[in-house]
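note to self: the first set is below, dont mix up w the second
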Amino acid sequence: MEPGVVTVLPPLLPRTRPQFPALSTSRSDQEDLSNVYAFAQPNINKTLVNSAIGNISTWPANGAGQTIIQKHKPCAESDTRSARSGRENATVSKPRYLEKLESYLRRELQSLDSAKIVSQELRLQPYRDVFDYFMEDFKTYKPLLCAIKNEYEVTLAHQREQIRSLEPLKAMLVSISERCDKKIQEIYEKETHEVKTLHMEKLSLLQMIDTLKEEKITLQAQVSKLQEEMEKTYLMYRNECDARKLLISDINELKHQQEDHRLSQDHKEQGEDPVTLAVALRMARSDLTKTQVLLNTLKADYGDVVPRRDFENQEKNLAACVEKIEILQKDLSQLQREHKSLLEINQEVVQQRDSFCREVDDLQRSRTPRPVWEKCVDIFPEIFQRWSELSEGKSSDQLVDVLLTELGTKVLKEKDFFPGMGVGNNVPFHLRHERPVKNLRLKLKEVYSMIKEIWKEKFSIDQQKGRQSSLPEFMINYLQKKFGEASFEWSYTLHHTCRVQLINEQIHSFYKVLMGQMDEDLYYALFHVHKNLLKELTMADSSNAGSLTREQFRLLLRKAFPSKSSDEIQELVDSADSQQKPDDENIHYKSLFSEDEEGNPSHFIVILRNQFSAERKQYLNELRSKLRNNHIKPEELKAAFLSVDPAIDDKTLDKFLSRAFQVTKDQLELAKPLPVKQLFQYLEAINLRKREPTVQV
């Protein structure tokens, strides 16, 4: 609606009162405000309605005293002509109801402005009240105004919800900003330190440059002084040379005069003509002078010239000397590199010597007398019937394992039931049972056969699923499928039997995998280290006779294990020879990979596994030597891995780091430092080995 235009409204009909949204002020409070400020009643607009024509005053918003320009329809022009001419220049003041609303709004806003802290919600409340009064008094427009007000209220509520949902993002943004500021500060401090170091280096270099400049000036002064002295010496020698030449010429002249006088006397005695002799003498002197000049010219021109033969000989000598110098320089560079490598080796040897010395000191302090194992025969005669064959060639630590295995096996056979370990989260998954479990008293060959079945089935299912499942969960599920209610009897019996079999490495390692003390990858690598070798030997045996010559066997060992030393290859060859008959010329390789019913392998496989364990131990020792602190961070262990094994790939490195610090890959940056002892306990359970280089045979 344009300002200054009177609009004809239709007759007002009674309407039902629409439902309004709840306001922050109650109806009673609004009535009190109406009483206090004496607001006009809803019929306040009636004073501005012309009953003759049905028009309502639309007073302009910019002030009172403005002329109202009336606009009517053409059909009503004759009826309103007299009225329009009577009020053409009339002025209308601001409506009283509008003045009261504005006065109320000003008072409310002034009361709010007097407070120190006023929110936007409080400032919006007086406008809401005025809008409610306005809707109550203009009932014709009340539904439209109520809809407008409701839509604005819904929009405001939606905006508040969005703001409230963004508050956590704001807090997170603040924390991220603080973390970034902290990192920026650390980088700035590090760069500041580097800048200071570079500044100090710059100052030292500037001082060195100043020193060199001073030395240059001093040397230039010395050169100038020597040049002056050389000029004086040259002048002195030149003068002496000139004086010597003059003296020689005078001496020669005197000699000539004396000789002329002697010749004249002789001629006088012989009767020759003196005039002829004088002319001959003059011509001879002239020829002598020309000859002397030519001789001096030749000396001046060819004084520094040498014969071509001497020049070519000198060139040959020079080329030989240059070639010899280049060879010597190459030898010197090679010697320098070798010397540097020898220094590094010497440093490593010194470190190893120091560590060995410390170990020797520790062993000397903690050593005890070697036990006399024969004392146990009288106490446990039934156990030590096989002692002679079990104890042959074993150390004290291995003999302790033998003793514990025999005692544990004897105690295990005497048990009828195993107590249930409960169903708590701290109990291994395959032992979660509350009631006592019967001891099946399995033999070792039965235990080993069941272990082989479990591994075979698990390997097949893991390949189908494409991921590695947990061994305890798989084992109990497999036993439940196979034995039903007796599954826990098998699980407990297998667990305790594998636990006490310390001398049977393959069975006891199964227990370690169950308890999480060894990764499955390490188990596969340790007990299947011979599979690649057997595959190579079978492929090389074109006749399928099961035998190869010793030279073929040695070359295939080198191809299958390129990182092994010559001594280790020879040890494997000797072990294979020891398992052959004396009259066999070839090596029957299939017999080298046999094992008994209890899982005990041949001597050849034992040597392979021992070398595998020695390589892992050496790898761990190299890692330990690279770590200097007592508590190790992930980045320090990563640097040690890259230093020991530069060819390691990023995926394998992240896997090793995650397993060592018992966190996921994304949590490595937040991982806490671990003590060296605890860290290497975790690392010993991983399949740590350097990558084998490929060798073509």
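second set (the one i keep forgetting abt)
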Amino acid sequence: MAAGIRSRFADVKEKIRLHGDEAQHEQTDRWSNRDLIPLPPSRRTWGWFHYFGFWTLSSLNITNWQTPSSFLTQGLSVSQAMMIIVVARLLIAGFSTLIAWCGIKWHIGFTIQNRFTWGMRASYIPLLQRILLNFIWNAIQCWNGGRLAAVCLTAIWPSYGRMRNFLPESMPTTGDQFVGFIVFWVLSTPLLWLPPEKFKIPFLITSIYTACGMIAMMIWALTFAHGAGPLLYTGVALPATSPWNISWLLMAGINQTIGSIAAGITNGSDFSRYARGWKAYVIGTITSGWITGVLVCLVGLVTTSAAQKIYGEVYWNPPDLLMTMMDNGNGSSASRAGVFFLAFGFGLTSMFENVCGNAVAGGIDLAGLWPHYINIRRGAIITFVAAWVVQPWQLVNKAVTFIQVLSSFSVFLSPVIGLMAADFYVLRDRKVRLSHLYATVDSSYWYWNGINWRAPVAWVCGWAPTIGGLVVTVNQDTNAPRGLFELYYMAFFIGFFISATIFIILNKLFPVSGLGEYDEVDIYGTFTTKEADKLGIISVEFQTNAYGSGEPSLTQETFDKKE
């Protein structure tokens, strides 16, 4: 009986186990599968527009639309708020390119990139942080997208907005919001089956549709208001009791804006490895990550200002403004059609941004935990299903403090980014030994039992000075020492530079082997002939031509024997 159960379990285990094409070096083991190996040229399909669309998703959304509001409510002027956004978005593009370069050059993602810095086992530390964030932010994005779905449903059936609340009072939400969440979640699910190599069409549709919707919304507001409205001309209005001058508020704003996208910066290599070349990534990142990001904030500011002139109130949240537009149109078919068009555009962006930035990214991270059984698609599905476990209606509508903590998680992520930059650029001179990233025997990246103790030490030193500021900010403790707040207002930069500096010092004091080394043979079929020549690596094509039409060599030792 027991033997039969074990046999059936083994059969099921074998059926769900992943298998790759060994001829394409897609070995599946504890450290590798098809989605974790260095990407071959055939899978590197992203041109500049892919990255334009990728960054557009982080720009053409509700969060970016609302960004100026947080600075204006602190008492800064419109010009100062826009200055923060221009500088911060430029720094975001710079940090993103800095970290993504490893993926551009060596075609590996965040999951693998951290192995040479942290060690094979210790790399789970940053990996688990990102998995947790992917689960939670995916759930929250689904909930926020559900609000837009509810607006669309109300535009189609006005009675939807007046539906009876069928949920128990213990749930901090209403029936129409919950149904909107279900609709958004269900409609998003099919996108999980789309591999990253095929993202061009969704990027194209989303970018054009949402951009047109935002511009149309701004034109409508300006036309009906006969001008931009009073909000656009807001000057400095610092409260007399404010303990902070403008310089500190500007610093805090830049830190906050960069920190809000720190999770996306850390896993830049997950998507840069799909690039056809470095120019595609850089052009797409600058044109959209910086320029489009700034323009969306400006469009949101102008539209909100004009809407204030029309309705007498400030609506920073697009779903609230859209519902007001529909109500003031007396529910006419024209107003409902316009609101549906606009809400659908915001919802479309939220949908694909969530799938790409949280679900797919979560799939890549989960694949690093169990390469035998999880690939990008399965990991994305797990991340998406986890939204029901996380219960975002509890987080968004109830746990305000928890959301603040999540938004401040860059305190822990910026030191990770500092370690990645210091190791790749300063210590290794941008050279990585790919074969050692997937092995434990004779691997330079195994260190001590799979742990490079220097990385955790430097990481803790990076966030230790700023964690106190995070705590007192979340607790709204106005009596806390001023220094804690000042450190927190510079948390991203402090964490980045302290961890990077300490990591470099520790590696100089306690040197490790393998720095600056790389495989002299392209054992994974990763590089084109041109790339291999530039790196000084013997390409697969060269090996095949040199030794006949048989299989190219798979290891350095094999190549040495043939020599």
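remember for set 2: Residues 2-518 form a domain with the Hydantoin permease fold (CATH 1.10.4160.10).
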